[in-house]
Amino acid sequence: MAKMKIPLVDLKTQYLKLKNDIDTAIQDVIDSTQFIKGKAKEEFEQDFAKFCGSKFAIGCSSCTTALELALRATGIQKGDEVITVANTFTATAASIVHAGALPKFVDIDENTYNINTEHIEQKINDKTKAIIPVHLYGQSCDMDAIKELADKYSLAVIEDCAQAHGAEYKEKRVPVSDIGCFSFFPAKNLGAFGDAGCVVTNDEAIAEKVSMLLDHGRAKGKKYEHDIIGFNYRMANIQAAILNVKLKFLEKFNEQRRKNAKLYNELLSGVKNLILPVQADDCKHVFYVYTIRTSKRDQLADFLKQNGISTQIYYPIPLHLQQAYKALGYKEGDLPVTEKVSKEILSIPMYPELTDEQITYVSTKIKEFFS
Ligand SMILES: Cc1ncc(COP(=O)(O)O)c(C=O)c1O
User: Fold this and answer.
1) What does the pLDDT look like over 256-298, one tens digit per residue?
2) Other C-beta atoms within 10 Å of 152: how many?
3) Residue 24 is part of a domain; what is its CATH number?
4) How far away, in angstroms, is 161 Cα from ligand 1 center?
């Protein structure tokens, strides 16, 4: 088999396919000179809310800021605790700290890599005010179990949907609870050409609070009247214009990702010592990444690199063992499944435009490594 060069993600091919529409959308914003607030952002907010099956979507500068805004809008304060996981991007936990609270990490389920709902209750105390389930890799958490606990203890639920645009739980697209926060970082299932994010909710009061907070705390419809001290966490209109074009293809792109994952599953099934991604009952996975697992992870990554295949580890050091979160007082051994998995996971190339030939090449090389 001739050597191929396969990147982990390929943003260029998708751009070239949509180039005319995207370039026109960008030019329209430039011509309108509506760079901050504008028609494109309003259109995106309406259409993305509809895509999610929710009432409101509020464009933000990133998912990091969206999470912070969502936490603040639910009334999170200094001294509060928020439950989440440690096998996520730092932004999930950083947003909790930015909002003044402290993250409390719960271990994960070894099959789905999402929060182990059986371990949540033991971490709840008087200070606990919210849960941030992270729909990792494109698959929803077990939301019924989370909602049951949230109801029992009156906790807010803010879903980190950064990797899960269009993912479903019991045939409802995420978010399925109070609030969801999305990232439109370029490589995501729906990606802008820079940073962008949004908060999605059915709760009008939350939507209004988030809208006010992200725009300098302006009173509704007023320019220089500020009811609260806010932030500048707005989504740029030009990013919204790009997202409007791409949103129309999101369903199709997600289906292509699922088809690619199915082919990987078929070609890699039965390989000894290799664990493939598991789609949980009740979930529709949208494969932001396709993550495999093996105790020979580092050797496999080296072998694939030598064969022109890029890979990535999401995430090599769990947050509770990162220098940045040292003050929280966690130590090795506190989250055994998270720690074990972080040493074994490897994400291989995944994007809608990946061809069957490329998938076959990657799979052949993986099988060659294990043979
Ligand atoms: C799970 C998760 N949460 C939050 C974020 C932060 O998103 P953003 O880069 O838009 O701030 C990311 C981005 O990679 C993420 O993967």
Assistant:
1) 999 999 999 999 999 999 999 999 999 999 999 999 999 999 9
2) 10
3) 3.40.640.10
4) 9
Residue whose Cα lies nearest atom 14 of ligand 1: it is 89
Assign residue 359 the CATH number of its domain. 3.90.1150.10
Task: Give 22-79 pLDDT, tens digit per residue.
Answer: 999 999 999 999 999 999 999 999 999 999 999 999 999 999 999 999 999 999 999 9
Count of C-beta atoms within a 10 Å radius of residue 218: 18
**What's the CA-to-centroid distance between 184 and ligand 1, angstroms?**
8
* Total-model pTM: 0.98
Domain count, the chain: 2
Q: Determine the residue type at 6.
A: I
Please, are residues 208 and 215 in contact by the beta-carbon 8 Å criterion? no
- Residue 21 sits in which domain range? 12-247
- Among residues 186, 168, 161, which one has the least CA distance to residue 22? 186
Centre of ligand 1 to C-alpha 3, Å, is 33
Residues 45, 50, 56, 62, CA torsion sign: negative
Mutate to test the pocket of ligand 1, among 60, 61, 62, 64 (most ligand atoms within 8 A of CB): 64
Contact call for residues 200 and 52 (beta carbons, < 8 A): yes
Instruction: Report the C-alpha gap between 38 and 264 in whole angstroms.
Output: 42
Kindly give the distance from the C-alpha atom of residue 89 to the centroid of ligand 1, in angstroms, as a whole number.
6
Of 65, 113, 183, 289, best ligand 1 pocket probe by most atoms within 8 Å of the beta carbon: 183
Sheet containing 81-85: which strands, arranged edge to edge?
Answer: 56-60, 197-201, 179-183, 156-160, 128-131, 81-85, 102-106
Task: Specify the ligand 1 atom closest to the Cα of 88.
Answer: 1
Instruction: Please report whether residue 5 resides in a domain.
Output: no
Residue at 338 is within a domain: yes
My answer on whether 141 and 267 are in the same domain is no
